[in-house]
Amino acid sequence: PPSIRKISEKYDKPFVTGCLEPQVNGPRANATFVVLARNKELDGVIQSMKSIERHFNRWFNYPYVFLNDGDFNSTFKETVLNHTSSKVEWGKISPEEWGFPDWVNPAVAREGIQKQGDAAIMYGGMESYHHMCRFYSGSQSFFYKHELLQKYEWYWRLEPEIKYFCDITYDPFQHMIRNKKTYGFTIAVKELRETVPNIFRYASAYKRMNNLTSKGLWEMFVEKPEEKPTDLPKSDPKYKKPLPEEILNSEPGTGALPDIDPEAMEGESYNMCHFWSNFEIASLDWFRSKEYNDFFELMDRSGGFWMERWGDAPIHSLAAGALLGPSDVHYFRDFGYRHTTIQHCPANAPIGRQLTRIPYLEKTTADEKKRIEEDEYWATPDPPKENGVGCRC
Ligand code: GDP
Ligand code: MN
Asked: Which of 53, 280, 308, 368 is catalytic?
């Protein structure tokens, strides 16, 4: 039987192995870093910039777009400019773009948020976090529709308090383009179940309503039947925008959202796996596509961004599952990356962890399956060792 490595290579192999001489004068993609941040996060932002500049951007010089629902102050701007020679643009997200949409009653939504706070759901009680997740997921304005991003085709998301361990000596955008990739990740983790109790019912309904058959990535997000939870709470209709007649009148089980019964989802439920979206290198054109925006609309109408605490990570991931195939997604297994408490270090990763488990499961041997399944986090919990291979270019 083929090894995991061989199977993985069939769909998605590393773009580059080893270190190259960075092409400081090579062609550049139409791409930018995107940083959403607040003034108080300046230290974390600078930490992230130092890391990405040192390990990549001092050679490649990609520009930055900073976005904020408030105004960046002059200290923030000056300090950022002192840490890069690239172009930097500053964008403001207007209150209409950031806050509740007009069809949501803020009092009702706030009550929902308060309840999540009372239930000690991580970030559940923090209104701004809900706005942030929705902003990064889609809408009238959202990050990919922001005027400063109109001119770009690709973005690389940066957050405060991240760290790159390895020199990145090639241009990932160029390789994404050359290899016809749409979405790139470096860590996938399990979501906290209580933040997304109903997300999968809606994502699944989107797929059914649009007669989408899996291109092979959806299976990554499906829990095996024996693990299926039985305690999914029903979503609360009072948070919802009324759905179009054709959806409301459709046959049960064909996408009538208010009546979606977890049992009617062909036995499928969410295994909580998602690409950790604080790192993303992805096509803005994909996010701007009709398909992605239809997906977002449907998810948004459900009210899940308020009555639950849907993150942009599972939203992006389930959209990818519904719309993309394994060969559209790239696992940047060669990027050493850390954000707060979770990291991926290529140097330390045992062999199975260097490979994405997603699309290949059904084609692997029992032994290989076991090894991959045990590797729940695709990221190593321990700190990187000194002299890591590939991380000391
Ligand atoms: P975590 O990584 O899930 O713990 O979430 P973060 O607090 O890091 O937020 C994710 C991203 O959104 C980071 O880039 C933050 O700087 C940014 N962010 C979160 N909340 C806000 C907000 O209220 N305003 C602005 N401007 N940025 C925010
Ligand atoms: Mn963060």
From this structure: 280
